[in-house]
Specification:
- There is one protein chain.
- The chain is built from eight helices and eleven strands.
- With about 350 residues, the chain is α/β, with parallel strands linked by helices.
- The chain has a single domain, classed as Alpha/Beta hydrolase fold, catalytic domain (Rossmann fold, 3-Layer(aba) Sandwich).
């Protein structure tokens, strides 16, 4: 059945461009994924995985990035430019999706990681209001913009990809936690990587933080695989995160944890209004500051991984993550950050603007 899927998922364009290799117009990245979304047989690769729950699947999606790609952008057709279809010369595109059996997936991932200089990989878990296609492109964009020497992996849970389906997304991220935990356990134990970065955004933090704590409790020997944990604008109750989740993660992983917060994140503002309580990704009076977690206030810049500044300016989360991965420096040593000291020896950092 998986082999049939692999064949079906490769859509042949009636006016094909040779997408089997990099061209002067675009570069193609293989991105590994796990997903518990439902499969849809469709000629449009963007619609291959839907918004319904399903069993855990593994695969590789090839994403093309145009050579004139602007750092921080996910190029897509724009009506105001009279662009109505995707063009790999101009837009990020899904070129091919192949489903693999579990063992084949991790064998191939391990082989590819072994060929990288640092034998590294990162796992990205997307947030609310995100489709499979958007998650794949976002992961490719992050990997490409970070100049990441290793293999990029993402986990796509069944977000409804709709601004108006927040409640359903909450239900589905909770439902997906057990699958995500199994995927993370296998990812840490089977990938043969020496440096693993775990990254989550928005509501995706709920799944990843839960999975990390549980896997570390069950398999403490795997903690040495983790190089860094990066939590961007987490949509988690601030008190629960501060008093339960963060202390458990610090104790169980014994690894560096970076928390990006913002006073400007619209999704977090809506979540706070809905729940009536601050979120872990909020900046301001209720900002989460916990021993063992480096809190970075990113207020005033983009917390969606879509900032256009990257190298030109310092005002970007992705640029700070670049510093973390490339240099391994802690917040105190990163020049893009300013140390903010509060009373009682409490402190955090703020991205310079």
């Amino acid at each position: 059945m998986e082999q049939v899927f692999s064949i079906c998922l490769t859509y042949v364009d009636p006016n094909p461009i040779d997408r089997g290799a990099n061209t002067p117009d675009f570069v193609k990245l293989p991105i590994y994924f796990g997903t518990d979304r439902n499969y849809i047989k469709s000629k449009d690769l963007n619609d291959t995985f839907g918004i319904k729950r399903s069993k855990l699947k593994y695969g590789i999606v090839e994403v093309s990035i145009p050579h004139d790609h602007r750092v921080g952008e996910i190029e897509s057709p724009a009506i105001w430019k009279f662009e109505f279809t995707e063009d790999p010369k101009k837009h990020m595109m899904l070129q091919k999706i192949s489903l693999l059996e579990k063992n084949e997936f991790f064998d191939k991932l391990s082989k590819d990681i072994e060929e990288s200089e640092k034998k590294s990989t990162f796992l990205f878990v997307h947030g609310y209001n995100t489709s499979f296609s958007e998650a794949a492109k976002r992961t490719a964009q992050i990997s490409y913009d970070l100049k990441f020497d290793g293999k990029a992996v993402f986990y796509s849970w069944p977000s409804q990809a709709s601004t108006f389906r927040y409640g359903k997304d909450e239900e589905n991220i909770a439902w997906s936690q057990s699958n995500m935990q199994r995927f993370l356990e296998d990812y840490l134990s089977k990938s043969q990587a020496e440096e693993i970065y775990l990254v989550a955004h928005s509501m995706g933090n709920r799944g990843l933080t839960h999975a990390i704590v549980q896997v570390m409790k069950n398999h403490p020997d795997l903690r040495n695989k983790i190089k860094e944990i990066i939590l961007a604008a987490p949509d988690i109750d601030a008190d629960v995160f501060k008093n339960e989740i963060a202390p458990q993660m610090v104790a169980e992983t014994k690894k560096p944890i970076t928390l990006y917060v913002s006073a400007d994140d619209l999704a977090l503002k809506a979540s706070k209004l809905l729940h009536g309580n601050p979120r872990a990704g909020d900046a301001g009076e209720k900002m989460v500051i916990v021993d063992g977690v480096e809190t970075i206030d990113a207020s005033g810049i983009d917390t969606s991984f879509l900032s256009h500044s990257y190298f030109a300016d310092t005002n970007s989360i992705i640029s700070d993550i670049f510093d973390i991965i490339q240099s391994g420096q802690r917040a105190l040593d990163r020049k893009r950050l300013s140390l903010i000291k509060l009373k009682n020896n409490i402190f955090y950092w703020k991205v310079k603007q």
